[in-house]
Input
Amino acid sequence: MFKKAQNKKGFTLIELMIVVAIIGILAAIAIPQLAGFRKRAIRAGMLSDVRGAVSVASSMYTDLQNYGLLAAAPGTGPGAVDVLAVPDGKYMTNLSNGNALTFTGLAAATFNAVVTNANGTDTTYASPVTINQNGVCQWTISPLTGNAC
Output
C-alpha cells in the first residue's frame, strides 16, 4: 500500500532559476568593466610604443647625429618596424596591435613621434599620442588638448 519514497537526486527548477539569475547579475556588472579595460589597454600600448620609438630615435641620433633620417615602415602593428628612412634592421621598435608610428617635424636636432591606433573608437583612449626628442609627451582627450602622458 505505502511505497517507500525513492532517493531522487538532481536540482529543482527553482534552484536552476536562481543560478541563472545570479550569473545574469554578474554578467551585467562585468561586461561594462571589460570595455573600460580594453580602452585603457589600447592607451597603455600607445604610450609604450611612442616611448619605445623615442628610445630608438635617441640611439640613432647618438650614432648618426641627425633626426632628419627618421621614418617609419608603413602599416600597423603588431610587429617590429625600422625607424630609419633607409631600413637597415639596426634601429627597430615594436608596435602593439593596431598602432601606427609616424614622425613629424623632422630636422637635424628635432622630431615628433606620433602613434595612432586603428582599432580604437573612443577618443579618450585612441587619439594620437605625440612625444618629442625631449620626452615631452601629449595626447588629445576630446574636447581637451595638451595633456601630459
Observations:
- The CA atoms of residues 12 and 18 lie 10 Å apart.
- The first strand starts at residue 79 and ends at 82.
- Strands lie at 79-82, 92-95, 99-104, 112-117, 129-132, 137-141, 144-148.
- The chain has a mean pLDDT of 82.
